[in-house]
């Protein structure tokens, strides 16, 4: 059974893949790409609400919109933090496909705004 088939069988059994070594390079690249898109989306979404703070008619509504911005930016910071931890525990590899040029051009999680690892409570 191929490495990919073994990994997919584990996933189908409901097992978690928690270490990069348990994933194929292609799967890990796709996961890092997905997490990067999610983090970037949270960041952009949060900044998209900023102009609405001034447009909200009441102080209470301004506060609500500001809270949305805070939550979205926090989500981005958590995702960037996970990407940073992932990058520090193993070197991401790009599969030898047309995606490899995109992988090389991705911003590094440590250079992203709010990219601090999550703190434990």
Main sheet overview: none
Distance between the termini: 43 Å
| Beta-strand share of residues | under 5%
List low-pLDDT spans: 91-121
Q: Could you say which structural class the secondary elements and strand pairing correspond to?
A: mainly alpha
Q: DSSP helix count?
A: 4
Fraction in helix:
55-70%
Order of helices and strands: HHHH
Please indicate the count of domains.
Answer: 1
What does this entry look like structurally?
It is a single chain. By secondary structure, the protein is mostly helical. It has one domain. Helix content is 65%, strand content 0%. The protein has four helices and no strands. The protein has helices at residues 3-12, 25-55, 59-89, 99-105. Helix 2 (25-55) runs antiparallel to helix 3 (59-89). The longest helix is centred in the first third of the chain and has 31 residues, at 25-55. It is elongated. It starts with a helix and ends in a 16-residue tail after the last helix. 13% of the residues are buried.
Characteristics:
disordered C terminus, 121 residues, 4 helices, mainly alpha, 0% strand, single chain
Give the helices and strands, then pairings.
Blueprint: H1 3-12, H2 25-55, H3 59-89, H4 99-105
Helix pairs in contact: 2-3
Summarize the structure.
The chain is built from four helices and no strands. It is mainly α.
């Amino acid at each position: 059974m191929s490495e990919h088939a073994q990994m997919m069988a584990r996933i189908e059994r409901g097992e978690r893949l928690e270490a990069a070594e348990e994933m194929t390079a292609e799967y890990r690249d796709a996961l890092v790409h997905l997490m990067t898109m999610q983090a970037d989306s949270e960041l952009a979404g949060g900044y998209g609400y900023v102009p609405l703070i001034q447009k909200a008619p009441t102080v209470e509504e301004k506060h609500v919109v500001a809270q949305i911005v805070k939550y979205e930016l926090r989500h981005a910071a958590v995702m960037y933090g996970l990407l940073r931890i992932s990058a520090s525990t193993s070197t991401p590899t790009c599969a030898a496909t047309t995606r490899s040029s995109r992988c090389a051009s991705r911003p590094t999680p440590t250079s992203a705004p709010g990219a601090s690892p999550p703190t434990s409570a």
